[in-house]
Write a structure and sequence with these properties.
The complex is a heterodimer of chains A (about 475) and B (about 240).
Chain A: E1 4-8, E2 18-23, E3 29-35, H1 42-45, H2 54-59, H3 66-81, H4 87-119, H5 130-136, H6 138-159, E4 168-169, E5 172-173, H7 179-206, H8 211-216, E6 223-228, E7 240-244, E8 250-255, H9 260-263, E9 264-267, E10 276-279, E11 289-290, H10 293-299, H11 306-316, H12 329-349, E12 368-375, E13 378-386, E14 392-398, H13 400-403, H14 405-419, H15 427-439, H16 444-447, E15 457-461, E16 467-470
Parallel strand pairs in A: 2-15, 6-11
Antiparallel strand pairs in A: 1-2, 1-15, 2-3, 4-5, 6-7, 7-8, 9-10, 12-13, 13-14, 15-16
Chain B: E1 7-12, E2 15-20, H1 25-31, E3 55-58, E4 65-66, E5 77-79, H2 83-99, H3 114-121, E6 138-139, E7 145-148, H4 157-166, E8 171-174, E9 181-184, H5 201-205, E10 211-213, H6 227-236
Parallel strand pairs in B: 1-5
Antiparallel strand pairs in B: 1-2, 3-4, 3-5, 6-7, 7-10, 8-9
Classes of the chains: A alpha+beta (about 475), B alpha+beta (about 240).
């Protein structure tokens, strides 16, 4: 008999989600859909607010990556002011953005995914948590906590608080960095770099255990998109967007992010609140692309710091073409953490980072502004239109997780087809369906600008749509 | 010269105190370090009794009386705190929050807001009254200042400081009850006001984030209303 499996909620994600697997009479998965079941409406209720409140308001979209929103939003506001912000302000914002990348990647890798990686996908569900890892692999658990703390502490030292800091403002930042804090920050870096390197070592050693998962975890050709600097190297704060295909050909080299609407379309599907962005010249779903750590390492010339570059070369040696399996997002995430830590160090080492002139002031000079930055999960776009007094008339936010939506849906189908079959469905099989979603580290609350608790659900449905089985966790 | 006829003796919370006959309960209490919460009251401005947070119990009176506009009387027995008064005060705060859109986390006055501090101080932990979520405008037409009616508590400090200290009479109140709005001139955009001198006193005395300087995002904005008593004294030629 045909049936439907529902996984609701999907666990160890940021936000609410649900997976529906449609099985045919033979028990073979015919279709899989990932539903994001929340809606928040930030774009609507921001209307009428003064534009300079936007960094603070949009930061509330997420408690994990508020800094990404602060940065993209502040950049959109800079565009409305039509100012070039002081270099020191740009560098300080960059440091905060990189610190955010480290803490968020640490959360994804250690807190959410390391139980699958260390204990195996078939480990009992009750053991698959960071708390269990703290007992079974104490030194790894401690590294995870320390790395997340490292990122959060940098944000706190720069901006005064760890979550939703009000320090990044239109035109720059609120306060300069003191020499004392700079020294404190520099002092924290060696331990963090060592922890990241330890993690890379054990991860690379254990990767062969996951050959089967690597084969089917969203392992298919798509485009990749991300920011690059003017030398074509990995960039998180500024620069242009590059799009490559699955063969590694650059199909768009230097797209101006301010014109994102000319090359990114947003499709809508009835089963989810999350939109499906696509690369316009190739249409939907042909223009499906991936963003985030895997995409960035695939499309950049290299990272631009010595230790990260060495790791990057090893990573790119996995495949002569771009690395296609989303399982490798985990690996890419670790390399990006190393890159971020090294880059923070080099930015802090420059004496100019202590410059006191950290903010440009102006009033409304443009009635429209776009701000783009690389969030931990990928390219984040904030786009505002204001009236002549600076009140928001219209806002559009294209969120990193959204870009990956089409690939995540296809990835779930690929994994489910491989692992979920027949009458008896083991828990570990369903966990793999969830784990493929976790590789993307989706932030569902961001992608729908939604709010709520964390959980996710898998639904198994008959051809007539009737529910056969539902797996619900949370 | 004897001050005797002007002296009144009363008790506040059982404590016997003397006050001048022209003093209010609030003035007498504060002179004796007895705390009564206030919001619309600001030293240096006239009293309007608008916010009702200073309600006190006076023996023999059938209802609670606002301490800021009730004069002392001989033999008066005043209670400033008891369960009933505390309940009324937290309810008044809840009404303020429910009436408009006060979102502390993204407010320019977060951490420096009198409404927020009073809520902390008086232990208002929940708002049980349904929020009204009114759709209220933001006027950002003035080159330096913005008025956000979502955060206005209608204390009218801006109206009074503009009339009594600056003498510009730019601010006024239109409408009735919950629909009231503070307005500039005849409800022109603030930026078009011909009477506004852009002195900024209204911004300094505003207890919330309703009036603020442009571009001051973040939570670092402190207001300085303490200049008022001195201004008044200088102007009236009184001795400090």
């Amino acid at each position: 008999m045909s049936r439907t499996i529902v996984i609701d909620p999907v666990t160890r994600l940021e936000g609410h989600g649900k997976i529906t697997l449609q099985l045919d009479d033979a028990g073979v998965v015919q279709d899989a859909t990932f539903h994001v079941t929340q809606l928040r409406g930030f774009e609507k209720f921001c209307e009428g607010r003064p534009f300079y409140e936007m960094p603070n308001i949009t930061a509330r979209i997420c408690g994990i990556c508020p800094v990404s929103h602060l940065v993209a939003s502040s950049k959109a506001c800079d565009a409305i002011l039509a100012v070039k912000i002081p270099t020191v302000a740009k560098n300080l914002r960059q440091i905060m953005n990189l610190a955010q990348l480290i803490q968020s990647h640490a959360l994804s890798f250690f807190y959410l995914s390391s139980p699958d990686l260390l204990l195996g996908m078939d480990a009992p569900a009750e053991e698959r948590s960071i708390l269990h890892i703290a007992h079974s692999h104490p030194s790894i658990g401690a590294d995870g906590v320390a790395l997340r703390q490292f990122g959060q502490r940098i944000i706190e030292l720069l901006a005064g608080r760890r979550i939703h800091p009000g320090w990044t403002v239109p035109g720059g930042v609120n306060e300069p960095l003191s020499g004392e804090k700079r020294d404190q920050l520099l002092g924290m870096i060696p331990a963090a770099v060592a922890a990241i390197q330890r993690t890379l070592t054990w991860f690379k050693e254990s990767i062969e255990k996951f050959a089967a998962e690597i084969e089917v975890f969203a392992n298919f050709p798509t485009l990749f998109m991300g920011l690059i600097d003017d030398r074509g190297l990995a960039e998180y704060y500024d620069g242009n967007l590059r799009v490559i295909d699955s063969e590694g050909n650059i199909i768009a080299g230097e797209l101006d992010p301010a014109h994102y609407a000319s090359f990114i379309g947003e499709a809508v599907e009835p089963f989810t609140y999350m939109k499906f962005p696509y690369y316009k010249p190739l249409g939907y779903p042909g223009g499906t692309y991936r963003v985030g750590p895997l995409a960035r390492l695939n499309l950049a010339g290299r990272c631009d710091t010595p230790r990260a570059d060495e790791e990057w070369r090893g990573f790119r040696a996995i495949s002569p073409r771009p690395v296609l399996s989303s399982f490798h997002y985990h690996h890419a995430r670790l390399i990006e953490m190393l890159h971020a830590a090294e880059k923070i160090e080099s930015l802090l080492a420059d004496r100019a980072i202590l410059d006191k002139h950290v903010r440009a002031t102006a009033s409304v000079n443009n009635l429209e502004g776009v701000g783009v930055a690389e969030a931990p999960r990928g390219t984040l776009i904030h786009h505002y239109k204001v009236d002549e007094n600076g009140l928001i008339k219209w806002a559009n936010l294209v969120i990193a997780t959204g870009h990956n939506n089409a690939a995540m849906n296809r990835g779930i189908l690929q994994t489910a087809r491989h692992y979920v079959q027949g009458e008896h469905i083991a828990e570990g099989m369903l966990n793999r369906v969830e784990a493929v979603v976790r590789t993307f580290d989706p932030c569902l609350s961001c992608s729908t600008h939604a709010m709520g608790r964390m959980p996710l659900t898998i639904e198994l449905r008959a051809p007539d749509g009737s529910l056969v089985r539902e797996v619900r966790r949370g | 010269m004897s001050a005797e006829p002007n002296v009144r003796t009363l008790t506040i919370n059982g404590e016997e105190i003397s006050a001048r006959s022209d003093q209010t309960i609030l003035e007498a209490a504060r002179e004796h370090n007895i705390a009564i919460p206030t919001l619309c009251h600001l030293e240096g401005l006239s009293e309007v009794g608008a916010c009702r947070l200073c309600l006190v119990e006076v023996k023999g009176a059938r209802r609670l009386l606002p301490a800021c506009v009730t004069q002392v009387a001989e033999g008066m027995e005043v209670t400033t705190h008891n369960a009933k008064i505390d309940r009324y005060r937290t309810m008044i705060l809840e009404l303020f929050f429910a009436e408009r859109n006060h979102v502390c986390s993204v407010c320019v006055a977060n951490g420096n807001c009198e409404l927020q501090s009073l809520s902390l101080q008086l232990g208002m932990t929940h708002v049980e009254i349904p929020y009204q979520y009114p759709q209220l405008p933001v006027d950002a037409s003035h080159p330096r200042f913005t008025v956000d009616h979502n955060r206005c508590v209608l204390c009218t400090r801006c109206v009074r400081v503009c009339a009594e200290i600056e003498g510009a009479n730019t601010w006024g109140v239109m409408g009735r009850g919950g629909q009231s709005l503070v307005i500039t001139d005849l409800k022109q955009p603030w930026g078009d006001s011909e009477t506004c001198t852009s002195c900024g006193k209204c911004v300094q005395v505003c207890p919330t984030g309703a009036l603020f300087e442009k571009g001051r995002a973040g939570s670092k904005v402190r207001k300085h209303p303490e200049f008022l008593p001195y201004l008044r004294i200088m102007r009236e030629g009184e001795q400090p």
